[in-house]
Amino acid sequence: MRVAVIGAGPSGLVTLKYLLAARDALGTKPIEAKLFESEPSIGGTFFSRTYEDAELVSSKQLTTFSDFRIPSEGDFLSAGRYLQYLKDYCTHFRLWPHINLLSTVKSLNKRRSGDYSLAYTLQNGLHTWECDAVAICSGLHVLPNIPHIDGIDRIPVRLHSSEFKKRTQFDVGKTVLILGSGETASDLGYLAVTSPTEKVVLCHRDGFHLAPKTNPEPRIIGMALRKTAGPPPIPIDVSRASLFDTAYVHPWLRKSIALWTYYDYYVGWILWMSWGTFHGLDQWIAGKPTGWSTSQIFFNKSSKISPYINNAWKPRQPQSFPQYLRSLFIRTPYIDTKGRCVDVAPWPERINEDGRVVFKDNGRPEYLRMKEKVVKPDMVIYCTGYRQEFPFLQSQHHNANVRDIWNRDDPNVGFIGFIRPSLGAIPPLAEMQAQLWVLNLVAPERVNRLDPDDEPHYRLITPKSARVRYGIDHESYIYQLALDMNSAPSLSQILSLACDGPRHQLWRLPLVWALGANFNTKFRLYGPWQWDGAPEILVDELWETITRRPIFFGHITLSLVPMLIFGPISLLVYLYATLLELLKWVMHMKPEDYVLQKEDIPR
């Protein structure tokens, strides 16, 4: 079998790796795989669209692949360090001979025979390669999304975030208008306000939710000590326990909003306890609309901008009696920004002839504050995302309707990495997608029935007006793909494996399985992609990760309490469902089924 991979970002590289590993892991014939990348280097976004001081907002523990880890160097990697990690990954798994750089795919056509003809340019020449399947891991044309705003051309300098590289581009004494409120907008807003600019204005459409990169743990202490609460070291994206959250949850329960409701209360409670606000991490303005839940939010973990937004909005003294009581025990530290601030504003309606911005009336406090201010930007930066285009495909709409990976009518074309988690990372999701796609490609009999009814539970709820409509819950999606591949071990399998290893594995492995987040390595213990090195990583590196979790605002609130609530509920639902199936079976039995037949009597 010959398989083409388009794109050398994390998604393309991990797909290439599993294609090459299929012979040894699955016992299939060798796969001849080629990867085509238009840039002169691997890395995708981490090579071509990074900027000064860029750092991954997802933890190293989650973002690195299941069988190639970075055991030290802190929890969060810089973009440059992650690019080096991807190069080391290629070297470790011997991917380089299969990677073709500076190779732009021009067309992909399905032939009558059922295979594909891929045309690509290399050294100014046009070449073709015939293959049996294709993994699309890049849009090839990743075009900036530029929303229309009347009069925007009156602003002298207009950049998309993909064109921004260094602080010096802000120049000196300029007014910078940032369009967008995601992680890139927050990063560039922070760079702008800490540069010698005159004014920085950040515009949003529907609010945003600043989230900490590490799980907050307010320390409730005596009145006299007045110590401040500080976040614990464990990254927030690995702070959830999987037992009864995603693992061993009855389908009826996981399709309900019960877990989301619990996390709504938890998030609101931890925010108020830590900072006295429900908007986000020490965030006092531009929160998500009232009524929005965690099932609808893309968390923004680039929160260094928070104190600069606070300046105009955070009260210096408690504004209510509950806030006063809270302040007796918990006092959030005030960060001195030396008078620098970022103005939060609604989305621009237009730019007047004199260059002044007219903001839309969104009915929020920031509009009342900004409507009379004179904002004449010297520079506008679009932090408004990208549009994926597939010029080599006959249709621009890939319509991957099976787990967002392939179309039921054409399973040999896989789309890897085209999803967005609310709180997580795309590379580990792409690894699980690659595992499932390759397994279905070469050994479809080993894939469970891919029921469409199993999909809604991991999808985020998005309004019809939302630009991004492919949001998913990281933990739920990972576990669903593991179930599809029979890679999610049972409790008896975990206990059996724990007994087969060193003494510390006997108790560490079950605890990491139950209390740890859905690290991809957990799904290399069993199943088609089983790997002998998985137990060691779990009982060493990932054991150390979960043991750093704080006691109360970690093990208790994010592990013990959900287990005590949803464990018994899951058990009751399982018992009820079993009883219901038994009653259905009895009701549908024919009279003769009740009679013991002669041949059924043991001799």
Automatic annotation (TrEMBL):
Superkingdom of origin organism: Eukaryota
Keywords: FAD, Flavoprotein, Membrane, NADP, Oxidoreductase, Transmembrane, Transmembrane helix
GO molecular function: flavin adenine dinucleotide binding; N,N-dimethylaniline monooxygenase activity; NADP binding
Keyword NADP appears in the UniProt entry: yes
TM regions (residue ranges): 552-577
Pfam families recorded: FMO-like
InterPro entries: FAD/NAD-bd_sf, Flavin_mOase, Flavin_mOase-like, FMO-like
Gene3D superfamilies for the chain: FAD/NAD(P)-binding domain (3.50.50.60)
Family under the similarity heading: Belongs to the FMO family.
Protein name: Dimethylaniline monooxygenase
Organism: Pseudomassariella vexata
